[in-house]
Amino acid sequence: MEASVMEVGRSLLACGSCGPEEYCGFSSGQPRCEKCTICPAGFFLVAQCSVHADRICQDRDECLEIADLCGDTQKCLNTPGGFRCQGMTERDANSGMCGHGYFYNSDMDECQACNECDGEPVASPCTFTTDTVCSGPAAGDSALSMSWAGDASLLGTKGHILAHAFPSVQLHIQGRSDAGLVSAESGHLVLRQHGLVWLDENLSVSHGCRSFIQVCLRMNNTDGSEGRDLSGIRVEQREGRSLQSVTVSGVAEVGPGHIMSLFLRSASHHCNQSSEGLQLYDPVGSTLSLFWLSHDTGAVAMTAQAMVSAHYHTNYRPVFRTTSTSDPYVVGLTHDGRGIRFAESGTMRFVFQQALYSMGQACVTEGFQILSYLNHNGTNSELFRAFKSGVHYRDTSISLSGAAKVDPGDTVGFEIISPAQCNVRFFGDETGISILSLVWIPAAISSSLSAAVAHTGLPSGAVRNKPLFFYQTSPHVSQMGLQGKGSADQKRDFVFRESGTASVALDLKLIHSCNLVKVTLLRRSDSDGSGGGREAEGARPTPVAQQVAGQMPEGSQWASVSLRASFQVHNGTAVFFTLDCVRGRVNQISHQTGSGVSVLWVAA
């Protein structure tokens, strides 16, 4: 008895936290959360599903339970989910011989129990010769877009491990499994649908490793034999072991069985062996989010690697080579490789991540800027800009993400601006540290919104959970907009007017003396959408995602924090951002450059 209890304990520990309709099973040879069996029509429940055992169902014996079923009990034969009457003809079936709750299945030549639809609407009721047709399709059968959210953590002691010397540590992914989309198994994310996926992971980490650690997003093929890094972000070593905020994003074309994993890799085996070790901050909300697009949307995914030069640059405009594309006609590179061209109207979301090494105190003082440009009819305009504090004799990464509308013939390019007295070298390899990831969705089912931080009303001083205000810089669209009290250039709530999936990217450039800076995305629902995102009586907004950064780098004029997440929306759903400063002051938020938010919306 004791051994079996221990076995159950081990299996639950290995499975982690399973969902409400799941149990910890071993059908694949390894412990994993599996969906509880649903008793089919014609079966009855023997034992309920528990944390370590599946639901048990048993076939009804209609021949014993129902008197004179076939007119003569000798002619009745019990079958799984139904029964067979010997010598039964179609004329008998059409006359209702199968009885109430059963229909005649001509393919099997027997009576089968009618489907009960399990609470779903009935599209067509059961007849003498046809089964019930349920109107609720399985998840993913007709959906154009869906989202999933979970958490990635270090397995073991909560929040940290002792980083003696680690070449690679897998982050343990957990989250409620969605049988139609994904399941979290053994710390990995297993896809269940064909389509395109966009992933965002918001991480707050401190480490004592020499040089840097690298956050990697990796995809393995179905058989597990091959894999590739979709994305990689380098996190520099900092004096004082300050907490650093990191956001890693990537896109991929996937099929059932594809596996997504998150890793932390160190550049060397020399890590600070203090009791603090490698630490991850445990935020509110989910750290990992996934945006799934059906192939029925006509969406296109593309990745391209920056061709890295060995020379130092002040203003660097990367040249790309395509590494993957699901449709090279719609999205591809320009002839010189410096831009991404679009052949059709739509909405695109991108992330460009570039690893670099810099030398010079000016790198630290002034930092780096990364920009994206849209060329429309031969005219360049700036799309987005983000700031990254610099490093001196260190490795780091800079990244930029955003969503925007594109027309046929438009191109998008990028530039990284460094201080004049700063020597910078850019790196690239096969681990996704110098990669552009992009997804394009046709205009008929998508839209985008961009907003800049408001010029007035920004939180400053001792800021505790104060809202951020914005004004819209992109054209108005019918699916979403900024709402709230006050002037048009000072709005808080992003309100959605149609159901779908949303993906947001926020960048903040600020000066502060806080021990911790927390940026939180919160969500609330308004039934009719007319209240401008006002909360229902007694309802509290729920956190969707949070990013946490530590103290400003010593000697730097500015700091930055980024937050990216995807989530489902409905008519009336409202989201907003708050800023929280723990032990210190927020002195200034840049409203001119480096701060803003973009939102991608795709129909459900």
TrEMBL record:
Pfam families tied to this protein: TNFR_c6
Renumbered ranges of TNFR-Cys repeats: 17-57, 97-134
Keywords on record: Disulfide bond, Glycoprotein
InterPro entries, A to Z: EGF_Ca-bd_CS, PKC-binding_NELL, TNFR/NGFR_Cys_rich_reg
GO cellular component assignments: extracellular space
Ranges where the TNFR-Cys domain occurs: 17-57, 97-134
Record PROSITE patterns: EGF_CA, TNFR_NGFR_1, TNFR_NGFR_2
Region of interest (Disordered), ranges: 525-551
GO molecular function: calcium ion binding; heparin binding
Gene3D superfamilies registered for this protein in UniProt: Laminin
One Gene Ontology term from the biological process aspect of the record: developmental process
Disulfide bonds: 18-33, 36-49, 39-57
Name of the molecule in the record: Uncharacterized protein LOC103354343
Organism per entry: Stegastes partitus
